[in-house]
């Protein structure tokens, strides 16, 4: 077992630890300022923290949870990191720049158990959950790629893994992002993307912080959805929509439905009309994602006119639609691709 990461501790945990070291609890806020505000690269930089406490930090915790093994920069300002965790597993995270927005996309598991047919992350199943610190660590690493005046403005849990299958570690990480002494990001700037696990959606609603919820629907009916998202066989579209309605009722947050367009599979305008029928009466938003090509899978992205026709059919059906822009296409930025290419290179 490696040592705990400093980021595995909540602010209350850290305050309690400071007291247990014979110091004062406000030291916790000082330490967190170095981590989340001042972009320190290690405990040794925390020069307003007393030496004895700094030594105890060095002895008992690791500062970063992984080493940067690859760093790619796209022409469009997107940057991607492949991190090697302390047990040798690898995860990916991405920084996207768009006008004033600095959005980071992070992973919650090593691999993924959901097995969506077009996704690189699920090709080799799930290895393990990330700890809270390992989730936050990706943010720290990406934050340190920013220039002095740049700040992370948005966080999306759309990297590798199913966030709601690891809520136990995801929620404390999101709370730290949300807290003033952490990154201080409003809940509306944090988006959790899920394959759609109804019980977990309700658990998240009960937690009470109104994070944005995005549901990867990809099809308006079960037969088609199960072909694309195999876990749908034991869930079903109806149960997902009903949980999403509960989420909206509990948080007041409009739910986003992601729809990854796969050529010849779910991109018929008839599916768009069906989807519009499902969502029209709901306060919903659809994010259409033309599939990012993945080397190892046979599925393909539709042509632009085909995508346009789908989007148009949704609009005519009275649905709010956006089409996701492709970012970092020249650096394998779609989730799971970099780890996959690394695994293929080394095995
Ligand atoms: N497991 C969660 C979060 C990770 S995936 C989920 O299913 O939502 C984040 C989003 O990227 C999902 O909507 C997923 O379907 C989509 N995605 C995965 N592979 C993709 C690809 N090759 N092209 C486009 N979108 C992809």
Q: Distance between termini?
A: 25 Å
The radius of gyration over CA amounts to 21 Å
Fourth-tier CATH superfamily name of the largest domain: Aldolase class I
Could you spell the SSE succession in H and E letters? HHHEEEEEEHEHEHEHHEHEHEH
Give the amount of beta strand, in percent: 15-25%
Q: Strands of the biggest beta sheet: in what spatial order?
A: 1-2-3-4-7-8-9-10-11-12
Q: Using the coordinates above, name the CATH class of the largest domain.
A: Alpha Beta
Global outline: globular
Spans of at least 5 consecutive residues whose pLDDT stays below 50 are none
The number of helical runs is 11
Main β sheet profile: 10 strands, mixed
Tell me which CATH architecture of the largest domain applies here.
Answer: Alpha-Beta Barrel
Structural category is alpha/beta
Per the CATH scheme, the topology name of the largest domain is TIM Barrel
Q: Please count the beta strands (DSSP E, at least 2 residues each).
A: 12
The distinct ligands, each listed once, are: S-adenosyl-L-homocysteine
Counted up, domains total: 2
Q: What's the helical proportion of residues?
A: 25-40%
Mean pLDDT: 94
